[in-house]
Amino acid sequence: MRNEHQQGFATRQIHAGKEKNPKGALATPIYQTSTFEFDSVAHVGAFFAGEEQGYIYTRIGNPSLEAVEKKVASLECGQAAIATASGMGAISAALWTALSAGDEVVADETLYGCTFSLLAHQFGRFGINAAFLDFTNPENLKTALSEKTKVVYFETPCNPTLKIVDIKAIADIVHAYNPEIKVIVDNTFSSPYLQTPLTLGADVVVHSATKYLNGHGDVIAGFIVSDEDFIENCRGIGLKDLTGAVMSPFNAFLIERGLKTLDLRMERHCSNAEKLADYLRAHPAVTRVYYPGFEDFPGHEIAKKQMRRFGGMIAVEFAMSREDTAAAIDKLELCTLAVSLGDAETLVEQPATMTHNSYSAEELKAAGIPESLVRISVGLEDAEDIIADFDRALPK
Ligand SMILES: Cc1ncc(COP(=O)(O)O)c(C=O)c1O
């Protein structure tokens, strides 16, 4: 049999991390337990000293979580992964692990609303400074890095404008300045099927597994993927002591199940997004479609280089006020007005009002997020039905 490193993505999404269990169950059992029984007090000491393998308490480790952690690490081409209770749980555990008072994070200015809020509005209380700039010009980083910089953080494609950041160019500049700086990439919008930042020089990948990784809209979950040392620190410090935001074994089971079809789902998301983007671009009520698959989209060439396809996310600006735009999307019937993304259902939302309402009007402007922008997570329905829904709802 080919070893895991030789196997293709589809094989790994099904088999990686799986262990033959004593009762022979094909699916990983849900170890729905908070604690684990020891044989003797002597064993307890050995476990805590790391001299013996085993489980102590689910906040520190659990076989259901371990199976899905190994699978995600394999798909992201990382040495190790840790499962968390949410995407924000992953982001905060990774950042709290890497940062101390007096340190600085340099981040791209277009980020998921709560990540932006953590960096821009909360970290200051703990003596951590965040500087924001536009990463589409990697040269900008050269003047922004300092000896205080411990983390460089970005998303690509960015939420919600699909802005593309060149992962390798950023990682090269940062590591040439100081190889100790952690380059952290939120890979939620791509999933590892489309893009693996660790193979392009990033140090850490974070995920909201609530989205494509799980893919079925029924869990809140996250992951951190990196080298073994950083993950051990996240497990022993970021997760165990600082956030406590551990994934539940039942959610690990659901995500492991969802991951078995990740490539098939991503292919359909990408194909449907391509068709909807083409339809919307030709619609008279639309002024701009943000979609990395368009040749004239800034960053298209970089996306082509670092992504397998262009993803399932689109953003649209209409030739209408924010209110009229909201009224038009209210008329959608098949497509659902909801935050979140990466589900089977097509989800539509207005970032300025919903996912990015933690940005002030000035911050939205600086991040290039128009107030009337609509974000679409293109689902797995028949593309013709999604298009028909927009065709009925949009003014002619
Ligand atoms: C890009 C991105 N990162 C992180 C998060 C946070 O994930 P969660 O909602 O699972 O905490 C989200 C949520 O929408 C997101 O879109």
What is the structure about, briefly put?
By secondary structure, the chain is α/β, with parallel strands linked by helices.
Write the layout of secondary structure elements.
Elements: H1 9-15, H2 41-48, H3 63-75, E1 80-84, H4 87-98, E2 104-108, H5 113-122, E3 129-133, H6 140-144, E4 149-155, H7 167-177, E5 182-186, H8 191-194, E6 204-208, E7 222-226, H9 228-243, H10 249-259, H11 262-281, E8 286-290, H12 300-306, E9 313-318, H13 322-330, E10 336-337, E11 347-349, H14 361-366, E12 374-377, H15 383-393
Parallel strand pairs: 2-3, 2-4, 4-5, 5-6, 10-11
Antiparallel strand pairs: 1-7, 6-7, 8-9, 9-12, 11-12
Helix pairs in contact: 1-3, 3-10, 4-9
The structure holds pyridoxal-5'-phosphate.
The site of pyridoxal-5'-phosphate (PLP) has 15 residues, from helix 4 and helix 5.
Q: Care to describe what's here?
A:
The structure is a single chain. By secondary structure, the chain is of the alpha/beta class. The protein folds into 2 domains: 20-258, Aspartate Aminotransferase, domain 2 (3-Layer(aba) Sandwich); 262-393, Aspartate Aminotransferase, domain 1 (Alpha-Beta Complex). It has helices spanning 9-15, 41-48, 63-75, 87-98, 113-122, 140-144, 167-177, 191-194, 228-243, 249-259, 262-281, 300-306, 322-330, 361-366, 383-393; strands at residues 80-84, 104-108, 129-133, 149-155, 182-186, 204-208, 222-226, 286-290, 313-318, 336-337, 347-349, 374-377. Helix 7 links the parallel strand 4 (149-155) and strand 5 (182-186). Helix 3 runs parallel beside helix 10 and helix 4 (87-98) packs across helix 9 (228-243). The longest helix has 20 residues, at 262-281. The chain is globular and about 75 Å long. Pyridoxal-5'-phosphate (PLP) is lined by residues 86-88, 112, 114-115, 155, 159, 186, 188-189, 208, 210, 220, 222.
